[in-house]
Amino acid sequence: MDELEKKALEILQSAFGVDQDDTLKEFKTKYHKWLLQGNHPDTGGTGQNFDRVRQAYHVYVKYLTHLQEEDYVGGDPTNYQEFVADAMANGNYSAAFTANFRALCGTPFEKFYKDWKK
C-alpha cells in the first residue's frame, strides 16, 4: 500500500470505520450506509467532506481491486487543474480523482506527475 492509499484509508476510517481487512463488498456497503446517513450534500451533508471522502473512496477502491488503468491522460500538463481537465476530457476519471485527492493532501504536482508516469 503506497502513501496515497494509506492516506485514503485514514480518511475512510475516520469517516465510517472502514477496516483494512474489509472485503471490497464490505467496504462498499459501509460507504453506501455512510451516504444514507445524511452525509451526501443532497441529504444535508457538507460538500467539502463528501468530496474528500468520495475521492478517498475511489482511490481505495482502485487499490482493493488492483485495477490497471491506462496511463495516458493527454498533453504534458504542468499543474493539477490542467492535468484533471485533460484526464476528464479523455475519460480517465481515475486519474482525475487521484490528482484531486493528491492536491487535497498537499502533494506537490511535480511529485505527483513523476509518480504517475512510472
Describe the fold and architecture.
The chain is mainly alpha-helical. The protein has two domains: 3-57, no CATH class; 80-117, no CATH class. Helices cover 69% and strands 0% of the residues. It contains six helices and no strands. Helix 1 packs across helix 3 (47-65). The model is unreliable at 67-76 (pLDDT under 50).
Order of helices and strands: HHHHHH
Structural class: mainly alpha
Contiguous low-pLDDT stretches (5 residues minimum) are 67-76
Total number of domains: 2
Q: Which range best describes the helical content: under 10%, 10-25%, 25-40%, 40-55%, 55-70% or over 70%?
A: 55-70%
Q: Shape from CA axes?
A: globular
Overall pLDDT:
76
Number of helices: 6
Strand content: under 5%
Give me the count of strands.
0
State the end-to-end CA separation.
Answer: 16 Å
Q: Major sheet, described briefly?
A: none
Rg from Cα: 15 Å
